[in-house]
Amino acid sequence: MNKLISKDLLSIGAVFLRPEDPFTWASGIKSPIYCDNRLTLTDVKVRNDVEKAIAQTVKEKYPQAEVLMGTSTAGIAHAAIAAHILQLPMGYVRSGAKDHGRGNQIEGKLEKGQKVVVIEDLISTGGSVIEVVNVLREAGAQVLGIVSIYTYGMQKGIDRLREAEVENTSLTDFETTLEVAAESGYIKAEDIDRLIAFRNNPSDESWINK
After folding, report:
1. What angle is formed at CA 87 by the lines to CA 129 and CA 170, rounded to 5 degrees?
2. Averaged confidence pLDDT in the chain
3. Buried/exposed code over 159-181 (b: 16+ C-beta within 10 A; e: otherwise)
4. Are 155 and 124 in contact (CB under 8 A)?
5. pLDDT for the residue 98
6. What is residue 102's predicted lDDT score, i.e. its pLDDT?
7. What is the mean pLDDT of residues 14-25?
8. Are 17 and 186 in contact (CB under 8 A)?
9. Which position among 45, 67, 100, 202 has the lowest Cβ density within 10 Å, counted as fewest Cβ atoms?
10. Are 50 and 74 in contact (CB under 8 A)?
């Protein structure tokens, strides 16, 4: 599954590798990778692969799940489609409470004690998804874990998830993408080490000239 999803993401440019001409993040960090999993929704084959894989992962790892909760905004569609496949209730968590109406931050019905799986599209440093987990816990939900489409596997994200005592399972990851990309000639085999160096320490730009 890991390789299939990586191939899918690379094929539609949802994951884009450009080590020779790095992207610049909002923080100013130079990055050889750009990830936009929203593109998976516009390709029928890839969308089917991704949603079936999310549903399969939830079913296998969290058979006791009672509700899927998407992260706002990228996780909402994936949570909805996977919940439809699994015939489970679904909702989502806003980035902040509404300033009108009922002031909801959690949209959809959620009972205290319900077993929830969070659906996320991308995990880098883990900050935003952990905020979602905390909101759900404060509402009385039992968060079983997170299922995400992609993770960079950055140490900061790993540490944060461990500290929050929540498990993440991704359909695919940075290492698998590099392996698939090298096998297909998308990148050169010698690029792998320097791309791993970026992932291990994004603020150190020495990988660019290796």
Report:
1. 35
2. 93
3. ebbeebebebbbbbbbbbbbbbb
4. no
5. 47
6. 53
7. 92
8. yes
9. 100
10. no
